[in-house]
Amino acid sequence: MIYLQLSTAQGPAECQIFARCALQKILREAHAAGVQAEILDETESRHGLLSATFTLSGANADALAQRWLGTLQWTCASPVRPKHPRKNWYIGLFRLPELPDVPSESEIEYQTCRAGGKGGQHVNKTDSAVRAKHMATGISVRVESERSQHDNKKRARELLALKLAERHSAALGQHAADAHSQRYQVERGNPVRVFCGTDFREK
């Protein structure tokens, strides 16, 4: 299984619009290639996405990931700032480390609560949503995407493992955020894929 993160690197609204479109294109390509794609976490914004973490699995997963890894460029006049002089917008797709060992039950504190949003009467009227807290670090996640409390607990443990891995990776570098920013800047001039116009056609 391949773990990927799509990031705008705190880019403006145009990058967030592009990120949403790019994720949709990746999911469509995955479906066409027989690759299973699963979104683990999304950070949404008013205009689109700030970031998304997802997995690809299956025989063609690695080949699909390789076609997208790196910097992605969208060339288009800003749809939200018509007079803005900038026409090129960049986001990045990065591969995350393999998922580490999932924390044991004894390391996690669970709370159950009512799920909200879509899902029908069953989801809304049962305590199927789960909030899980890793007691040693204080990292917590909330999951309500599955119908059963058991499945939400399983997903919560997986998300905690992913967040712990991200935290560990950041701790390894003295200036992890700066290093990420520098890498992003270097890669801006060499996009792996370029899309144009409001219909996001590939160049």
Describe, in plain words, how this protein is organized in 3D.
The chain is α+β, with helices and mostly antiparallel strands. It folds into 2 domains: 113 residues, Alpha-Beta Plaits (2-Layer Sandwich); 63 residues, 2-Layer Sandwich (Double Stranded RNA Binding Domain), CATH 3.30.160.20. Helices cover 34% and strands 30% of the residues. It is built from 5 helices and 10 strands; from the N terminus they run E-H-E-E-H-E-E-E-H-E-E-H-H-E-E. The strands form 2 sheets. It has a 7-stranded mixed β-sheet with strand order 2-3-1-5-4-9-10. Strands 6-7-8 form a 3-stranded antiparallel β-sheet, covered by helices on one side. The longest helix has 24 residues. It starts with a strand and ends with a strand. Belongs to the prokaryotic/mitochondrial release factor family. InterPro entries: Pep_chain_release_fac_I (IPR000352), Pep_chain_release_fac_I_sf (IPR045853), PrfH (IPR017509), Prokaryotic/Mito_RF (IPR050057). GO terms for molecular function: translation release factor activity. This is Peptide chain release factor H. Pfam families: RF-1 (PF00472).
Number of E-state strands: 10
CATH class of the largest domain: Alpha Beta
Any low-confidence stretches, pLDDT <50, length ≥5?
A: 119-124, 172-180, 182-186
Q: Which percent range describes the beta-strand content?
A: 25-35%
Structural class: alpha+beta
| Count of helical regions | 5
Largest sheet composition: 7 strands, mixed
Major sheet: order of its strands?
2-3-1-5-4-9-10
- Specify Rg, calculated over alpha carbons: 19 Å
Task: Find the CATH topology of the largest domain.
Answer: Alpha-Beta Plaits
Helix and strand sequence: EHEEHEEEHEEHHEE
Protein name: Peptide chain release factor H
Organism: Neisseria brasiliensis
GO molecular function: translation release factor activity
InterPro entries: Pep_chain_release_fac_I (IPR000352), Pep_chain_release_fac_I_sf (IPR045853), PrfH (IPR017509), Prokaryotic/Mito_RF (IPR050057)
